[in-house]
Amino acid sequence: VIPEVTATSRHYVDRLFDPDPQKVLQGVIDMKNAVIGNNKQKANLIVLGAVPRLLYLLQQSSSSVELRIECSVVLGSLAMGTENNIKSLVDCQIIPALLQGLLCSDLVFIEACLRCLRTVFISPVTPVQLLYTDVTVIPHLMSLLSHSQRTQEYITQIFSHCCKTPEHQTILFNHGAIQNIAPLLISPSYKVQMQALKCCSVLAYENTQVSTTLVNVLVDGELLSQVLVRMMQRDKPVEMQLTSAKCLTYMCHAGQSPENSGHQHKTFVFNGNISQQTLPCLVRMCSKEHLLEVRVEGAETLAYLIEPDVELQRIASTTDHLVAMLADYFKYPSSVSAITDIKRLDHDLKHAHELRQAAFKLYASLGSNDEDIRKKVKSPVCCLLFIWNLTFYVYLLYVCILSLLAFP
């Protein structure tokens, strides 16, 4: 930490120890304004010991509700900094402190604690197991879902990011996750709908018990699968279409396990939910009109959907010229982006490998069972491999020339 920067930051921490509660409150508010969008200031305050003091103030029953709310807001802002910031916050036991705050009766404070918890848990460096350490936490979070749209949004997002293993799926399922979260799919809030949708998706992933339950769940008198089909309509946001298709894909895929195979599953697959709705939606996600990230996720999900089912493979192979559409996945980075737009080049380079990998996965799923489809796929794949290798070496040559020209 640069000494002169530290000196300008120290007064923010010193004010947290003022004997006058009003001055402490104003100091926290000033700190909140100082750290917004300023990672250097966030790092300085963490090094200077602001976090333990903020957590102390947050947990004291003698602190005013306003002060406790402002402390949680500042902690949430610090959590939006670097991964090192998150590690420091976790090391200071921020998660137990915030979970304890959820026992407060003030809804605004509860929402502030949940918002901060959400920010901490969505970081890849936060151990998600910390959510499951205390067995009373999950049922309490379930009970808070009904309090407001904000509690619904934050809690479902926390569940989505902290559901990483079959054990986590089981814990959430056994505490009523499906019954509590499925109704949120028809919430008037788009944010709540999306987080509930993502949560249902991760719960259903390769989980027969959850998927079988979801197939039979009613949401306001309507089957959940029909609600998901409506969310895949073209007039819905792309994010909603794709996530709904993923959720139905996982429900379908888990239903193909040996203990759940047979006529019931086939009916679910070919009653229009999968073959006529989900599959075409995922093919749309592969088109070049969408962002590269969407195209990667769309292709990978489609490959996962059709992999075990030859009928779905045949349908996919004849839908919207999918085989030819995948050729576009090998056109990044483009020569135009390399020459005219360095930011676009950087973006394309980051996703070029993911695009090609997704395309090959989908090609593999398409041709895994049917010889006619293999013949349809084989020719473009061989051609693409040749062009890809040639383009790669030309691109390397181009980069080398640019590097040489950069030096006198």
UniProtKB/TrEMBL annotation:
Signal peptide: none
PROSITE patterns in UniProt: ARM_REPEAT
GO BP, sorted A to Z: proteasome-mediated ubiquitin-dependent protein catabolic process
Name recorded for this polypeptide: Armadillo repeat-containing protein 8
Organism: Takifugu rubripes
Domain of life: Eukaryota
Keywords annotated in UniProt: Cytoplasm, Membrane, Nucleus, Repeat, Transmembrane, Transmembrane helix
InterPro entries linked: ARM-like, ARM-type_fold, Armadillo, ARMC8/Vid28
GO CC terms: cytoplasm; GID complex; nucleus
Positions of ARM repeats: 49-85
Subcellular location: Cytoplasm; Nucleus
Chain segments annotated as transmembrane: 385-407
